Amino acid sequence: MAANTAENFPELKNDLMLRAARGEKTERVPVWVMRQAGRYLEEFRAMRAENEFFKVCQTPELACEVTLQPIRRFQLDAAIIFSDILVVPQALGMTVEMIPGKGPSFPEPLKLPEDLSKLDKDVDVNKTLGYVFDAITLTRHKLEGKVPLIGFSGAPWTLMCYMIEGGGSESMSKPKQWLYKYEEASHQLLNILTKVIIDYLVGQVIAGAQLLQVFESHAGHLCARTFNTFALPYLSIIARQVEEKVRAQGKEPVPMIIFAKGAHYAIEDLAQSGYEVVGLDWTVNPKTARHQTQGKVTLQGNMDPGALYASKEEIRTIVREMLEQFGTQQHIANLGHGIYPTIDPDHVEAFVDAVHSISEEINLDSKKKN
Ligand SMILES: Cc1c2[nH]c(c1CCC(=O)O)Cc1[nH]c(c(CCC(=O)O)c1C)Cc1[nH]c(c(CCC(=O)O)c1C)Cc1[nH]c(c(CCC(=O)O)c1C)C2
């Protein structure tokens, strides 16, 4: 079977994630882990010792291998393609370096509105991001249908943060300054990003992605007013236009997940923004979120990643509490943000196994009662 054609993919053996994302009944809660491929795995560190970060992202065989590493280790219910959200600023013509021990760095961030003229606005995603599509197609074949494959992108505001701040930041004060000083230029940049993100996500579905996640990882730097002005409208446009453009290409739309970290004030709005799944960070009370969303969407999350430092027994206790708060239907278990590089992989296994065994037990108990 040709491993480079986005057709004749192996039959899916485990569709739990897809059923949960669509709000259908599930016999146990599916689970995956944000940043499940990464530095906490020695096999990832070995790969990175030999290969620069963006070389791994840009070489389909390497990105595929890294994507499969956690799938070989744990009974996860989904794989997520190994890439990074910062490939989109690269496609717009910006230079992004990964500084060891520091993280991403933009040598020439956007400083003033006139810098927008430097961006390659009319991005052909097949030319500039085709390597991600190739990685997705290859990985779909190599997964052999074991679990579905998630594609992803950063959201417009979160990418705008990096493009202006020039890297990670506690305050993201420079992009926040744009929102208050250069409102029109901010919307211009957010529109440029929205357009390329839509094409990028559609390309991932055509290449074989079976779910999509949009990471609005820096929503926590916004307030309700700025979120409703500079984030939510663009998130909604992305969800609706990705579905429309996938259909226009004769393909079946895939479930979409929105993860807006820190946007506890916006859960109700996010549940009506066109996404099937709303991801919650660890600060949100699952019962409150369930009440706010009224069964309209599936919820994803939200164990504190720090809980993976607890003992395996304590992890089981925390997982049980989390599952009882969410209820075992319309729930995809995950952490409330990405896993930390110093987590013990054995504790990830304990987390995954606890979600499966305890959610099965709760489901069986509720069957006996009814
Ligand atoms: C989902 C994801 C991302 N990057 C990576 C993954 C893992 C994919 C997978 O598990 O297969 C690999 C991924 N991306 C990176 C790494 C570490 C690279 C290394 O040192 O080996 C990995 C494994 C580099 C990176 N890339 C980024 C950071 C954070 C910088 C900061 O704000 O301080 C970092 C450290 C930007 C980034 N990148 C991403 C996000 C959204 C997810 C989140 O919020 O955690 C963000 C904010 C997306």
From TrEMBL:
Protein species of origin = Branchiostoma floridae
Q: Name one Pfam family in it.
A: URO-D
Location in or out of the cell: Cytoplasm
**Gene name?**
LOC118431811
What role does it play?
Catalyzes the sequential decarboxylation of the four acetate side chains of uroporphyrinogen to form coproporphyrinogen and participates in the fifth step in the heme biosynthetic pathway. Isomer I or isomer III of uroporphyrinogen may serve as substrate, but only coproporphyrinogen III can ultimately be converted to heme. In vitro also decarboxylates pentacarboxylate porphyrinogen I.
Keywords tagged on the record: Cytoplasm, Decarboxylase, Heme biosynthesis, Lyase, Porphyrin biosynthesis
Chief localization class? Answer: cytoplasm
Q: EC number(s) on record?
A: 4.1.1.37
Q: What class of enzyme is it?
A: lyase
Q: Which Gene3D superfamilies match?
A: 3.20.20.210
Pathway(s) the chain acts in:
Porphyrin-containing compound metabolism; protoporphyrin-IX biosynthesis; coproporphyrinogen-III from 5-aminolevulinate: step 4/4
UniProt cross-references to HAMAP family, sorted A to Z:
URO_D
Tell me which NCBIfam families the record gives: hemE
Q: Uroporphyrinogen decarboxylase (URO-D) domain: which residues? A: 30-39, 150-166
- Kindly provide the name given to this protein in its UniProt entry: Uroporphyrinogen decarboxylase
- What GO MF terms are annotated? uroporphyrinogen decarboxylase activity
Looking at the UniProt record for this protein, which Gene Ontology cellular component terms does it annotate, in alphabetical order? Answer: cytoplasm
